[in-house]
Amino acid sequence: MPKKPTEKGMGKEDIKLQTPKGMRDLIGEEYYRYQGFFEKASEVAIYYGFQPIETPILESEGLFYHSVGAHTDIIEKELYTLRTKGGDRLALRPEGTAPIMRAYFEHGLQSQPQPVMLYYHGPFFRHDSPQKGRYRELRQFGLEVIGSSKSITDALVIRLVNTILTEAGLPDLTIEINSIGDRDCRPIWKRELVNYYRKHAKEICADCRERLKDNPLRLLDCKNPKCQTLKIAAPSVISYLCTGCKQHFKEVLECLEAMNITYTINNNLVRGLDYYSRTVFEISMAPAEGEADGLPLALAGGGRYDYLSRALGSKKQVPAVGVAIGADRVLAAPGVANLLPRLIKKPKIFFIQLGTEAKMKSLSIIEILRHTKTPIAHSLSKDSLSAQLGIAEKVNIPYAMILGQKEVIDNTVIIRDMRSRAQDVVKLDELANYLKTLKA
Ligand code: AMP
Question: 372-396: per-residue pLDDT in tens?
């Protein structure tokens, strides 16, 4: 048992000044890159009528067992669970769909006009072995359309991910799509799949022998070279789809074609989680040259989940479709755009103060600049003119504003054009108007 922080032997010397394995801090530029991406994705979602939602990082453990599925990697191997002092069993959320469906019922969203369209972003937790593109704390942006079974909503979700990723500077995308059928046709296909693999049980890898017992659809997910040949001849879902599923799939594909979105049908795509039905899809980028495993890294994945509501105890079936984009992978992808958040503005003025009185007055003057929405930089902790001018020159800011002792007495500031070195003395009560005349 690891020692508690209060136990003897767990002193300051035992504190490791590092983040837990597979998790990391986001600081400065990197933080802004995430924020910029989430802003861009939110902007697209809001335009299409999606509303924001934020659910807690912790949920009851049972929520994920009954939705994602007890025999999935996410639950069997990767779920972070804890027992609270009050005895509740909670889990760090590994994904966003189940919590959002929980929120949909908890807040009676079924009484609003349907479908309810929600977007979210934030951290998710999976106790996976950390490696490139695979973290234990991952960040996702997701969309959920809850309360419609119409194929146009599947197409809408795929369209929006495609738009978001393209606008994030990633045009070379591969969209793989499949239908895994519904409650009527899937069991027949599943039975055939199990029969087929049982006959070949000796030829498959150890993981697949487990999958055969617990989650047979995932046999088609196997990346082990040993299992690839068998996969080719496995019963293909497409031959088992019922009329309704076939029609739905056809409509989704027609919508994509009408939007000129190129896709590839991959009948082995199943997306391990229990709650999917009918449409499933994944979007990836070809690996960069020299990438070790050569497998394209999925940037986003999603699908239809018409039975999730029932799995969570609802009497009524609420059809839905959604997607999650892996922000960590998007932002690590070669060629990704540097999407800076809107609140970050390139400074126009470097504020310089000289002497104690000037330093004391600085924050009030900076407030004038803030009210006029003039982005500035400063170095208030520095005292000398040369130190401050040196920084202003280095960061390439077009103007400097200088406040010395004389200016404090006169209620003025000096504005210096850093390129021409021309200077103006400006009265404080005229400052706001003067700033408007400055070119960026
Ligand atoms: P999933 O629903 O599990 O397919 O997750 C959706 C997207 O999140 C994936 O396509 C990945 O881009 C991303 N993702 C999933 N797991 C991880 C992880 N462990 N680390 C980083 N990104 C991940």
Answer: 999 999 999 999 999 998 888 888 8
Closest to 97 measured CA to CA, from 140, 134, 159, 127: 140
Q: pLDDT grade, residue 68 (50/70/90)?
A: confident
Closest CA to 55 of 10, 132, 118: 118
Whether the bond between 130 and the residue before it is cis, its omega within 30 degrees of 0, is: no
Q: Which residues contact 305 (CB under 8 A, 6 or more apart)?
A: 97, 101, 275, 276, 277, 320, 321, 322
Residue 95: per-residue pLDDT? 96
Pocket test for ligand 1, best of 170, 276, 329 (most atoms within 8 A of CB): 329
**Residue 413: CB within 6 Å of ligand 1?**
no
- The residue nearest atom 3 of ligand 1, judged by CA position, is 301
Taking the C-alpha atoms of residue 339 and residue 36, their distance in angstroms, rounded to an integer, is 5
Index of the ligand 1 atom closest to the CA of residue 271: 4
Rounded (5°) CA angle 103-105-106: 60
